[in-house]
Amino acid sequence: MSDDIDLKHMRIFLQLVRYGSATKVAHETGISQQAVSNYLKRLRAIFPNELFIRQSNGLQPTDFALELADRFERVLTEVDGIFEEAPFDPLSAHRSIVVIANEYAQLAIMPRLFQALRLAAPGVTVTVVDFDESAHERQLASGEADMVIGFSGFMDDCVLSVPLRTDYYCCVVGMGSKVAEKITKISDLSGLAHVDFANAAAHLGTSVDSFLEEQKINRNVIATLPCYTALSNFLALNDVVAFVPLAVAEASQMKVLSFETMPKAFEVSIGWHRRSSGSAVRKWFLELALGCIK
């Protein structure tokens, strides 16, 4: 019997209960009065109990019709709700969000984002996993991760993303550096001991190389470290120079040497897979990140 009723039947029936007139329903819905009568005839054939009693002032719904109207109303509310986003209340939410983040994001973005998250959604926890250029798209597509934060140029083309901030590489030394006193202009960097980093999704090495070549700086690279995290302790014992993103230098409390000419800015993005485009949680987290990261 349920196969004989579609959503249109339910909507017309509710209008008939409301207005008590096929003519009025036809006017409100934009269909013919005959079509409304046919819907009513179909409904009468389906249900064993009388639906309406014809009176001088129109159609009077029976008690059965009123009960049926309540059921139809609930069904249509559920169906119409499919097209609405599920509400997300950060203050009452208890869930976990998995964020893929490269080293830059882990050092310069996630601490501030965690701070904002704890205030906005105390019951929401975050798990951070390392960025893998070859695996992040699959992790997002499978639901293993919810968001990704890293350098735009390393994100898969299938990942939807928006810019989160721009940054640039700066020259840094240790807080107690003696060699810094000898550096007044960028050409003074030639011949000094430099630290470099392994090329990976967390380090835009070619950007620094190109900049130094343009400035005709010959680096004397004495060590290549695997990550930015290792640099602070290295600088504490070795009076050398290095190039790291400004936000990383500030987060790690390194001494920044400023020059009139600096490397070109690069873009940091936050991304997600299209499978989560309609997620209210994803939209909320994105707004939170965009609001607290400048």
Automatic annotation (TrEMBL):
Record keywords, A-Z: DNA-binding, Transcription, Transcription regulation
Species the sequence originates in: Pseudomonas cuatrocienegasensis
Entry similarity comment: Belongs to the LysR transcriptional regulatory family.
MF (Gene Ontology): DNA binding
Pfam families with a match to the protein in the record: HTH_1, LysR_substrate
Domain of life of the native organism: Bacteria
Domain named HTH lysR-type: residues: 5-62
Name under which the protein is recorded: DNA-binding transcriptional regulator, LysR family
